[in-house]
Amino acid sequence: MTLLQADNLAVGYDSTPVVRGISFAVEAGDYLCIVGENGSGKTTLMKTLLGLQDPIEGRIIRGENLGKDEIGYLPQQTQIQKDFPASVREVVLSGCQAKAGFRPFYNRQEKETAARNMERMGIAELADRCYRDLSGGQQQRVLLARALCAAEKILLLDEPVSGLDPKVTAEMYALIRQLNEDGVTILMISHDIDEALGFATHILHVSDHVFFGTREAFLSSEEGRRFTGWEGGTVE
C-alpha cells in the first residue's frame, strides 16, 4: 500500500527551487533514507512533504487514509527547544494535540497512548522529570515518543542522532529499526551513510541528479558510487 508519493517535485523558497525532479513512492513498511550534501534540499523536502510549505512544482499524493496530521515528525532540535521547561509527560502528550483539537484537556485514550509510547521508548520512569534536565539521548527518546503519539503509521525523522555520542547514536538507530520492524514506515534524513546503507530498504539521494531506488540499486548506481566511495564491496 502506497502511503506517500512525490511526482516530479521541485522544492525551495520564494519560488526559487533548491532541487527539482524528485519522484518517489513510499510503501507501508519501507525504511527510506534521504541523503545528500549539505544544502541539497533534504530538510526543505521534508517540510514540503509535511505540508509546512507548498511545492514549487509537481505534487504530493498521500494514501487514502493518510492526512497531513497523521504523519509523525521529529525535527532537528534547536537550543531553545532543548531548554523547554515542561515535564516529559507533557511533552509526549503534546503529540496528541492535533487529535485533541479545541478540547482543553487530553482524554483517557490520549493519555494511554502517551503512556504506551513512553514505555515503548524506555522513558516511562522519566515521566515526571523536567525535559530540559535530560541528556541528549533521553530528549530524543521523548521526542520520538511524541512523534508516535501524533501518528503511528509513518514517521519523518530529520537527523535524529545529531549531536549524540556513538553509544547513544547506536541505541537510537536500534530503536528506529525496531519501530520499522514493528510496522512503522520510516523516512529519515541522515548524514551517516553507513547507517543509512545498513538499515534502509530504499535510498533517496537529493542532488543535481536525483536518485530513488533500493539500497542495492543505489550502491550499483553512478550516484551511489560517487557519494559513498563504494568500490569492490566496501564503503570507504
Protein model, in words:
The protein is of the alpha/beta class and 236 residues long. It folds into two domains: 1-71 and 152-236, P-loop containing nucleotide triphosphate hydrolases (Rossmann fold), CATH 3.40.50.300; 78-150, no CATH class. The protein has helices at residues 42-49, 79-82, 88-93, 97-100, 108-120, 136-150, 166-181, 193-199, 215-220, 222-228, and strands at residues 2-13, 16-27, 31-35, 57-62, 72-74, 154-158, 185-189, 202-205, 211-214. Helix 5 (108-120) crosses helix 6. It starts with a strand and ends in an 8-residue tail after the last helix. The model is unreliable at 230-236 (pLDDT under 50).
What's the arrangement of strands in the largest beta sheet? 5-6-7-3-8-9
Fold-level CATH name of the largest domain: Rossmann fold
Identify low-pLDDT runs.
230-236
Can you tell me the number of structural domains?
Answer: 2
CATH architecture of the largest domain: 3-Layer(aba) Sandwich
* N-to-C SSE string, H for helix and E for strand: EEEHEEHHHHHEHEHEEHH
Biggest β-sheet strands, sense, barrel:
6 strands, mixed
How many beta strands in the DSSP annotation?
A: 9
CATH superfamily of the largest domain: P-loop containing nucleotide triphosphate hydrolases
Strand content: 15-25%
Provide the residue-averaged pLDDT: 89
Q: What is the 3D form?
A: globular
SS-based class:
alpha/beta
Distance from N terminus to C terminus (CA atoms, Å) equals 36 Å
Radius of gyration: 18 Å
